[in-house]
Amino acid sequence: MFVLILSFALVAALLPGVASLLGRRVFYVAALVPTGAFIWGVWAYSQIATTGPLIEQAAWVPQLGLTLGLRFDGFAFLMLSLVAGIGVLVFVYAGSYFHTEPIIGRFAATLLLFAGSMLGLVLSDNLLALFMFWELTSITSYLLISIEDNKAAARTGALQALLMTGMGGLAMLGGFVLLGEAADTYSMAELLARPPSGSVVNVALLLVLIGAFTKSAQVPFHSWLPRAMNAPTPVSSYLHSATMVTAGVYLVARFTPAFAEYSLWRPLVITFGLTTMLLGAYRSLRQHDLKLLLAYGTISQLGLMMLLFGVGTKESIFAGCTLLLAHGIFKAALFMLVGIIDHQTHTRDLRVLGGLHTQWPVVAVTAGIVAASMAGIPPLFGFLAKEEALAALGETGFAWGALVLLGVVVGSSLTVAYSARFVWGAFGPRQVTMIRDQDYVGNEAVGEQAPKPSNMFLAPVFVLAALTVVFGVLPWLVDPMIARAYESLVGKSTDHHLALWHGFGQALALSAVAIGAGCALFWRRKRIEELQESMPRVPSAQRGYDRTVKGLLEVADAVTGFVQHGSLPIYLGVILLTMIVLPGVPLLRDSVMPDLWFADSPMQVVVGFIMVVCACAAAVARRRFAAVILVGAVGYGMAALFVMQGAPDLAITQLLIETLGVAVFVLAFRHLPADFVRPKLRGSQVARIAVAALAGLFIFGFTLFAIGARTEPSISGEYLDKAYSEGGGHNVVNVIVVDFRGFDTMGEIVMLAVAALGVAAIVRAKRAPTTAEAESSATEVEV
Amino acid sequence: MTQRRSVILDLCVQAEFHTLLLLSLYLLFAGHNQPGGGFAGGLVASCAFGLRFVAGGGQALSRSISIPPTTFLGVGMLFAILTGCVSLLSGHEFLESAILSVDLMVIGKVKTSSVLFFDIGVYLVVLGMSLLVLEQLGEADGSDPDEVQP
After folding, report:
1. Which domain holds residue A686?
2. pTM for the model
């Protein structure tokens, strides 16, 4: 399994190069990886029937006892078949969606990385690994939404998605850590087998739910999903309908059997799920953009899935698994259809589109079938899922069961209405009379002359449409798969089976009611639209997000304005005072005076005297240049002391540093007046002298007491012993630098490089006020 | 500010430039057993280029080296990190040293440590940093085109 996940990343690294050779056919190459994953999944699925879940372990940070565990069970296979199966189709689809844009290499690589991360997410058993993959999907989603980075809407939409899912992810991490510490294990299987209890678990579950709700776009965290629709359509159909947004549902599904009895869990999930289902469907009826219509529809369906898993009865979990699969199939197909319409006609506005049913009759029929599956019309797979859901909610036995059932029936009829609206809007006759606002110019129906999409472009849609029909008519094909998923969630096998015909019952009656009400809603759509227009605008979640971000930026501005006021003397003063006060106070309280002696040799006295004189002279020098030379002389004196102590390495380094330091100072001083500026204010002068003197005293005292503070034996002896035997060098200093403390050196050279780039950036920023000059200087540098 | 170039300085720098570079390489390779090392070697090389700069200005500097300083920084860090990764891949701890002995036939048998490559990385980063700072601070007053004219 590790190899499988890694292969996604490895192939992704190669794709940009392949793209420059193959053009858009790179997507077919990329499709091979999820194909392989799918084949592996089917093979592994045939194994787990006899052996139980496949488990792979790898030591991650053995010092902390962290193990990276992967686990493949029935529910993981359900998710894997969505991720890999739809993944293959999306890659094939993308091969026709794009032309020869330069971004395709980057796009294919990022999409494949996402697929790998999502696969890791559903296979992870370790909670921290799950979190890592969770965040990877957020990051790849960000990169994919903003892939056309010249579009401002794509950039802000991507940022919003990242901020909201990232915030939820952090909350979830907190929850995971609390749970992991309470249960003393980070393995999800062990945690769910023996769920911890206590008040801390309530907090932890709340945090985990925030993560799940943000990722699965539950109200009020849903606003990022419609804005993520600025992404290219393959992304919308893969990430934002079938896979990534179901990650939150996945988590709730995993956790519910263990935690459903907790006071918080069930009411929270059901409330949020139901609200999301109703609000999403209601908002969907108002959209003119086909993609947004589907996005709100996705939000609504995610709410239903959340609700089903949250209820947590056996029947509802079974129904949830069915809906997860059914939704992935029909929603991915619908998004692909929108992409095809957009690609061929250059619009997604259902008020403008018209005549496509005569142009592309086959496509129109396919769209009708898939949308009917979404609406829950028999005999399609969506109908089976809806039936299961209604039946499960009808027999919960909870006091509030009837209320939830009523809500779901209302939501279902809204779903029927927006499904009909989708098909009618995209493929029906043009609805000119419905245009009210001014954003549409021209009066020809778009689509009448649209070129026919190629067969390769349509193939993935046909595959998905065929699946939704076949699974509906022949439910025994998927029944074992869903039963296995159910079994790995609940831990018990089931004798419940999917069937197209359950006989006359409450569920069938409710389905009929929902379909009838949905058709009525669609019949009276003009009236409904007028009603929606006249409704007062409720405060939208989008405005809430905008306000929060604006407020955050304002606070950041205020804090920066206060802390970074731009006065160098004050910065330096703050740094020095912190240095003096923080270690200084404990130093004064308890420090041991070391044994002192005057000097080792007369030469030391001479050099020391010279250094003191130079240092004092530097402090009172009037000219900058003189001050720098004097400071350099102090450094050379230090080098002389090192030589006398028998430390040639330190002496060489000190000498060279001083030389270069003086040279750089001189370069910098060319831009400053030759003389120091004498401050006019007496008070500020006194403060400066005080701070400088205190800092000097502190350093002196600190060095002095540092010698006396030793409590453990020195490690120098060991270094001396092992320098040759283990480090292979006679120069102990060098062996320490590159071997014993190699990690420190690594950090230091990285810091050097960063500092150098920082200097370059500051100087350049100062020098080049216009971009033209910046460009010319950049080319100069390259010469 | 007009700057005159001193002929004496110019000639001296030309004479000792390559010697300094050789010295820096000596320090780099001898560093494991005698005083020196990547840091000191890099600083000596930086001083060599610094002298070039003092004598001839930014133009002399860019004439004497055509590789951009950022390349030194990047390649240096790559060297250091790869050394660590090689020991990691061969089953040791990150940056754990191994003693290499190479038979160079004519010169004889050379015994060194794998951390020499790490030291080369340090050398390159130090040199790159100095070059970048010299270049940036030195060109900062590029508004005066006469300055670097010979």
Report:
1. 600-782
2. 0.75
